[in-house]
């Protein structure tokens, strides 16, 4: 376990102090098994920036960009071997050591690996207040397309059995959308209370003035489940009618070379950019439409951000997408003509774009989290 300076100043994070040692606020330890700045890291950073009313938040994660971003915000952060790369046995042992030292009131796990190892690590442990440490889990990534994200049926069945078992030891489960809640109940059954607390994002400090245009943006890993090849095929139809149209394929991944080849085959390479990783807010400000034709999404931060910035949205009708954008934005990925039609409509007709208010309010999200903690911790 590596301790870093955070909100309590150099040399001491506040996470080091035994619970109850002069600490007025109850403590929630967030277990995040990934080091990078992805969707879950975005959620963590938004909550840290907003704060959990009446609670102290400490984050345990692997060393990496997320830990660095948390330190920059002055947040108490612990780093250690708690990622899938470290293996379940080592991660569980490290998590148990941290729990025994910190003695938080709540352990809040995020992502499947942490859900399973955290449930094992917390067994039999008590908080600084002498009560059983409560276990809360947020489900960010359960897929409604069964077997798509597993290596095979036996592996999927084994993971399902593990999740059903750990839910019986979990005090509350948070789903990020109604769709996510439905999938939890359908795939893993009961055993814990499942409450919906949606991801919510703040509008930009200076909201950009929307304008018509066909500058299309994809913000996604270049992987099969994002179906960016279908977007390029639809863009070929858009460009044939609107030669000023462009598309930016931001991100990296295993399909980058194949997607570049496809752009050349479709004779649209001059209209397509592959900039790699980009700063999302800056990219959103420079485009008119966000396209996301994923196989599955739970509650996409990309779509929330697009709506908050006043951009048009083209997305597949999967997971929680229809909880963010209206039906007129949703279209099957394989319907290239339909995708092209919605891109043009969302780009050129400002009235057809999603309402900005649908992106929500992070303070409301954080208030919902504290209600869960108070309900389970008493």
UniProtKB/TrEMBL annotation:
Domain Glycosyltransferase subfamily 4-like N-terminal: 38-199
Top-level taxon in the UniProt lineage: Bacteria
Name this polypeptide is given: Glycosyltransferase
Gene3D superfamilies tied to this protein: Glycogen Phosphorylase B
UniProt cross-references to InterPro entries, sorted A to Z: Glyco_trans_4-like_N
Keyword tags: Glycosyltransferase, Transferase
Pfam families assigned to the protein according to its UniProt record, in alphabetical order: Glyco_trans_1_4 (PF13692), Glyco_transf_4 (PF13439)
Any one Gene Ontology molecular-function term assigned to this protein's record: glycosyltransferase activity
